């Protein structure tokens, strides 16, 4: 269940990308990214800009079937000192496509919402989480708008059951009806996931039903927890109930 007010996802993509681009302008792009082992800051920028261009291409062509390849024309600059501008140009292209697209139009997606709007929302959280990765890499303070964080928690939990084709660990999330409740401690969001013999997914009947485990944190921390950027033992997180169930979830829900 998510009670956050609707967001302008397209405007948020633009704002997040501008913030990301400003961070990497003049930064040492050889720095390792602690939250993405094996990646440098340059890798993080290439990944984020590449994902944006891929999503933009899907929207531009209104794809109706799963593409045979995820390759995209990156159009990378020759030198890494041009990466900040490259990232900003990708967001500008995305904004043009958003404006020209009926976001309610049906199209292929890998998640739950089979409409063009899926890709705009997905682009937002792909960008936002990696913007935080960049801030943490550079030792900068970071913050996430509470409404955006709540929406990001919802987007993650709604779509996660559909991500098995690129997140094989999800196959281990099976059970006999055990439930995990995720709660935004700063208000406005509560979700219950049930693990069933055939898979897992959100409970839609009564999110207030008894849960076997509960995870509670402010929306921003809950979002970063789900994305593996915060550990559930962190001071900002309260986790209670079936520890084995929580171990199973967090060991296999990597996105």
Structure in words:
The chain is α+β, with helices and mostly antiparallel strands and 255 residues long. It has two domains: 9-142, dinb family like domain (Four Helix Bundle (Hemerythrin (Met), subunit A)); 152-252, Nonspecific Lipid-transfer Protein, Chain A (2-Layer Sandwich), CATH 3.30.1050.10. Helix content is 42%, strand content 11%. The protein is built from seven helices and five strands, in the order αααααββββαβα. The protein has helices at 9-24, 41-60, 83-100, 117-137, 146-159, 219-226, 243-252; strands at 178-184, 190-196, 199-202, 213-217, 238-241. The protein has a five-stranded mixed sheet with strand order 3-2-1-4-5. Strand 2 (190-196) and strand 3 form a beta hairpin. The chain is globular, with a radius of gyration of 18 Å. The two termini are 21 Å apart. The mean pLDDT is 94.
How many beta-strand segments? 5
Q: What is the CA–CA distance across the termini?
A: 21 Å
Fraction in beta strands? 5-15%
> Which CATH architecture of the largest domain?
Up-down Bundle
Helix content: 40-55%
| C-alpha-based Rg, rounded | 18 Å
Keyword list:
2 domains, 255 residues, alpha+beta, Nonspecific Lipid-transfer Protein, Chain A, 11% strand, single chain
């Amino acid at each position: 269940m998510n009670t956050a007010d609707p967001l302008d996802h397209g405007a948020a993509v633009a704002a997040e990308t501008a913030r990301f681009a400003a961070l990497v302008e003049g930064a040492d792009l050889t720095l390792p990214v602690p939250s993405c082992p094996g990646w440098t800051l340059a890798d993080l920028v290439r990944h984020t800009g590449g994902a944006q261009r891929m999503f933009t291409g899907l929207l531009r062509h209104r794809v109706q079937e799963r593409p045979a390849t995820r390759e995209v024309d990156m159009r990378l600059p020759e030198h890494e000192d041009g990466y900040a501008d490259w990232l900003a140009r990708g967001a500008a292209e995305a904004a043009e496509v958003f404006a020209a697209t009926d976001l309610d139009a049906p199209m292929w997606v890998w998640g739950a919402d089979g409409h063009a709007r899926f890709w705009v929302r997905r682009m937002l959280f792909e960008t936002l989480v990696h913007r935080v990765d960049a801030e943490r890499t550079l030792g900068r303070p970071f913050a996430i708008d509470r409404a955006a964080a709540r929406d990001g928690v919802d987007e993650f939990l709604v779509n996660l059951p559909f991500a098995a084709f690129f997140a094989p660990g999800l196959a281990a999330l099976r059970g006999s009806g055990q439930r995990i409740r995720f709660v935004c401690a700063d208000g406005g969001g509560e979700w219950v996931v049930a693990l069933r013999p055939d898979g897992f997914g959100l409970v839609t009947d009564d999110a207030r039903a008894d849960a076997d485990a509960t995870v509670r944190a402010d929306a921003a921390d809950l979002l970063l927890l789900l994305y593996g950027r915060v550990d559930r033992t962190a001071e900002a997180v309260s986790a209670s109930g079936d520890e084995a169930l929580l171990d199973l979830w967090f060991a296999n829900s990597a996105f």
